[in-house]
Design a protein that fits this description.
The complex is a heterodimer of chains A (329) and B (513).
Chain A (H helix, E strand, L loop, with lengths): L2 H15 L1 H16 L6 H26 L7 H16 L16 H23 L3 H20 L4 E2 L4 H7 L1 E2 L2 E2 H19 L1 H11 L1 H7 L3 H27 L1 E2 L7 H11 L11 H20 L6 H26 L1
Helix pairs in contact in A: 1-14, 2-13, 3-8, 3-11, 3-12, 3-13, 4-5, 4-6, 4-11, 5-6, 5-11, 7-11, 8-9, 9-10, 9-11, 12-13
Chain B lengths: L10 E12 L2 E12 L3 E5 L6 H8 L7 E6 L2 E3 L4 H6 L2 E4 L11 H6 L7 E2 L2 E2 L1 H15 L15 H15 L3 E5 L7 H16 L3 E5 L3 H7 L2 E6 L2 E6 L6 H9 L1 H13 L9 E9 L5 E8 L3 E6 L5 H8 L6 E6 L2 E2 L5 H6 L2 E4 L3 H4 L7 H5 L4 H4 L8 H14 L16 H14 L4 E5 L7 H16 L3 E5 L3 H7 L2 E6 L2 E7 L5 H10 L4
Parallel strand pairs in B: 3-10, 3-11, 6-9, 9-10, 15-20, 15-21, 18-19, 19-20
Antiparallel strand pairs in B: 1-2, 1-4, 4-5, 7-8, 11-12, 13-14, 13-16, 16-17, 21-22
The chains are: A mainly alpha (329), B alpha/beta (513).
């Protein structure tokens, strides 16, 4: 192999690794050039705020995809966690028709429920040895059904409760959820790259057979990844509730697919063993940039999802082409 | 069976009356076996003799059905991979147990003891340093320990596997065919390392097909055949010929000679049925050319990873490759499996469970899967009755033993599954059949049947490309042998010049004899 081919190779590898950055920059440049308000500080901070719930859930999903599993229950998991949190934290004194106050218990209970339901996903996969797609498809229905049973068709208000503080407070012109996102990502980055457990997760995703033969605790690692996913989804739920102020039984419907799209755009492989926290966050931001930019140029709302779908396919095609080039050099 | 004592005398592991069966077939039966500290035991036997099962039991990957296992004086009823590792037992698996997406250093440190930490965080520096020390022992020119494993060559990966096993082992090391992808200097280094471990009091099990390795390294030889221990002794007490007889069984050794006599001589000549020119894919294949004549059995030898299966897959259109392929004088371009079948090609691939059978479907459906069009009426109806009738004929013709035609394919034993696959391909009336390791992991009787079948088919004019790592099989059946090395044809031998040593030499060095 000549040095030229080697240089070529590292270039291709670099483009492949940072393709999400390239895509995001291209989108930002396009929208900034056609819409003046797009590149204002206010709008950019708004984009981050809008992306934070998806991005935090995407961080959790990255853990699951790295071990070559998938969690499609997170939308339902999020709504059930929030429902239980509401039930626990709602002030019992409020009568019918009155807006009930909700106390600060909503945070710990919501997060704990997310963790528990996530661990339950991992537990089911470990014990029954079923494919994670099927297992979380099943829990997706179950969690949603229980939510409907508990919430019914009436919305639960969160008005004036501490949860609104998270959704509506700004520090230095940037919404609180963005700070939460930064904190979560830093922790997740350290766990994946600087702690042994993170390397075990990558190892397990790289080769499950090797992981078993090496004696890695694969069941424990799987529980861990699904627990993180559930916890992150619950955190995303708290942000969402804080932003919209009510709880409906349909909360988070379809959320899982937006999150998976963000993670995949960020370069995480569905086959496991490859993926990064930064990529997933940028993926989530890219999806919001598309919505936001199209909105600013008054594009028809129906076109948004079409464009997102097209970009997802394009991104995967480019990735496959680059991987082929890489294998050939 | 009392064992000769090693340097320290005390047995580290002891199996007594251990057996393991799958679907009623004993892959290991009544095995009593021990290894002492400071002793190197060569474990030999043909494919499917039970060596891997024995290894997997010691690694905690397979739980025996019967028998007892004692390690360092303690008896275990349940022996997990974790138990095995924490007792200091490690294995170099033939199928490497590496993580391609991680760095060499991470691969070496994965497992027992875990990754090194400083203040709770990964200590990458320490990890790289410790890895480099291991690599220096094994590599001629050590590679960067922070490099991901998927950038390494096959030989380098094998050495990383060795480094990984060494790192996790403190008492016992099992080496399963550790030299198949290694160059000669790399081999020598590995031998040195192995000897040093023995001096340090390790118990060692060395699984290999290579005679010279057995005689150079071992203190004791244990021979397995069909899941049983059939012989045991020191390198001095058993000579090569006795060893081969024990491994193969006298009966089969004779059949091989008889078989060889049945192969039509001289080798068929004339216009080739299959002509391959410069088959290459920039990776596994680096320019492969050969011709196959009508009625000829062309053996394709070489080490694991030499590119033999890749040749088969490229011809059949499963794998993309450049180069010219002519079948019966006509160029075969834009190769696809459907196109290959239409041109009279058939492929029995190496991994029959993964690539060939439809496991949950019935024997009837499996047998008729290549001739569905022929069995379908003009109105588009695929009659189960016609399928059944056809399947009935096939099972009789090829002596396929099956509980029922409606039983799922998985209910059949390996040999019968393989006969089904071959029968199914032959039903489509091919002119060339590619057999990739056709007798791997199947019992002796079925193996002999398949051998006779291959010879019989060739004498009727079918051309056979026989890929096999089983050297006696290759030598007995082939008219001609080509040996591959690193994606190229290293050389060829005509029947008159057949010689196992020459094949091994070409396969391991790439230099034609």
């Amino acid at each position: 192999m000549t040095s030229l081919a080697l240089a070529d190779r590292s270039w291709i590898a670099r483009i492949q690794r940072y393709s999400i950055v390239v895509m995001l920059l291209v989108m930002v440049v396009i929208f900034a050039s056609v819409s003046k308000p797009f590149f204002s500080a206010g709008n950019l901070s708004n984009i981050l705020l809008q992306a934070s719930a998806t991005a935090i859930a995407a961080v959790g999903m990255t853990f699951v995809l790295i071990i070559a599993e998938i969690d499609i229950s997170i939308g339902s998991l999020m709504s059930l966690s929030m429902t239980v949190a509401w039930m626990t934290a709602v002030d019992v004194g409020a009568g019918a028709g009155q807006q009930a106050g909700v106390n600060a218990w909503v945070y710990p209970v919501g997060l704990l429920m997310g963790l528990v339901l996530g661990l339950l996903n991992g537990f089911i996969i470990n014990v029954l040895r079923i494919n994670s797609f099927i297992a979380t498809l099943a829990t997706m229905f179950v969690y949603r059904g229980v939510t409907w049973k508990m919430v019914g068709s009436s919305d639960k208000a969160f008005a004036d409760s501490p949860v609104m503080y998270l959704g509506r407070t700004e520090w230095l012109g940037i919404g609180l959820p963005v700070y939460l996102l930064v904190a979560v990502s830093l922790v997740a980055y350290v766990v994946l790259n600087r702690l042994p457990v993170g390397r075990y997760l990558y190892a397990m995703g790289g080769s499950l057979r090797s992981a078993v033969e090496t004696g890695l605790p694969v069941n424990g690692l799987r529980l861990f990844a699904f627990g993180v996913s559930g916890l992150c989804a619950a955190a995303a739920g708290l942000i969402t509730i804080g932003q919209i102020g009510t709880l409906q039984a349909g909360l988070g419907n379809g959320f899982e697919f937006t999150v998976i799209a963000a993670v995949v755009l960020g370069g995480t492989s569905l086959l496991g063993g490859r993926g990064s926290i930064l990529g997933s966050i940028l993926g989530a931001i890219l999806l919001v940039v598309i919505d936001n930019g199209l909105n600013l140029i008054n594009a028809s709302i129906y076109i948004y999802d079409v464009i997102k779908g097209a970009i997802l396919i394009g991104a995967v095609l480019v990735d496959v082409a680059l991987a082929k080039r890489l294998a050939a050099t | 069976m009392e064992t000769s004592s090693g340097v320290n005398g005390e047995p580290l592991i002891r199996l007594e009356g251990v057996g393991k069966s799958y679907a009623g077939v004993w892959v290991l039966k009544d095995a009593t076996f021990s290894v002492s500290r400071g002793e190197l035991v060569a474990l030999v036997g043909e494919n499917g003799a039970g060596k891997s099962t024995l290894k997997n039991i010691l690694c905690g990957l397979v739980a025996p059905d019967v028998g007892s296992l004692t390690v360092a004086g303690k008896s275990y009823s349940k022996f997990t991979p974790h138990d095995s590792r924490s007792l200091g037992i490690a294995a170099i698996h033939q199928e490497l147990s590496l993580f391609p997406n991680l760095s060499i250093a991470e691969n070496v440190h994965m497992g027992v003891g875990g990754l090194p930490r400083r203040l709770g965080l990964l200590d990458k520096e320490k990890m790289a340093k410790a890895t480099l020390a291991r690599l220096e022992e094994l590599f001629e020119t050590p590679v960067d320990p922070n490099q991901p494993v998927d950038r390494l060559s096959l030989g380098e990966r094998q050495l990383v596997e060795v480094a990984k096993a060494l790192h996790g082992s403190s008492a016992m090391l099992i080496l399963d065919e550790p030299t198949t992808s290694l160059s000669l200097p790399e081999r020598r280094r590995l031998f040195d390392v192995t000897r040093r471990l023995r001096e340090r009091g390790y118990a060692l099990i060395y699984i290999t097909h290579f005679m010279e390795e057995i005689y150079e390294l071992s203190d004791r030889i244990v021979v397995l055949r069909d899941g049983r221990i059939v012989g045991e002794g020191t390198p001095k007490s058993i000579d090569e010929r006795q060893l081969t007889n024990m491994m193969v069984g006298r009966e089969l050794a004779e059949t091989n000679a008889e078989l060889e006599a049945k192969v039509a001589r001289p080798a068929p000549q004339g216009t080739p049925v299959l002509r391959v020119t410069d088959l290459a894919d920039g990776g596994a294949l680096r320019g492969v050319s050969f011709e196959l004549h009508r009625g000829e059995i062309l053996g394709l030898g070489g080490l694991m990873g030499a590119g033999r299966s890749e040749v088969a897959e490229s011809l059949f259109g499963i794998r993309e490759a450049q180069g010219q392929v002519d079948i019966a004088g006509l160029p075969f371009e834009n190769r696809t499996p459907a196109g290959a079948q239409a041109r009279g090609l058939a492929l029995v691939s190496e991994d029959r469970r993964k690539d060939q059978i439809f496991p949950g479907r019935s024997v009837r459906e499996n047998l008729s899967s290549t001739i569905i069009n022929a069995l379908t009426s003009a109105a588009g109806y695929l009659s189960p009755t016609r399928q059944r009738a056809r399947a009935e004929v096939m099972t009789r013709e090829y002596h396929i033993r099956h509980p029922s035609l409606e039983a799922p394919m998985t209910a059949l034993f390996g040999g019968n599954q393989q006969k089904c696959i071959i029968a199914r391909w032959l039903a489509a009336d091919p002119s060339v059949i590619i057999l990739d390791e056709p007798t791997k992991g199947i019992d002796v009787a079925a193996k002999a049947e398949i051998h006779r079948l291959i010879v019989g088919l060739a004498s009727k004019g079918l051309s056979v490309l026989l890929i096999s790592s089983d050297l006696p099989e290759l030598l007995a059946l082939s008219h001609r042998i080509l040996v591959m090395h690193k994606g190229r044809i290293a050389g060829g031998l005509d029947h008159a010049r057949f010689d196992p040593a020459a094949v091994i030499h070409m396969a391991s060095t790439g230099i034609a004899a």
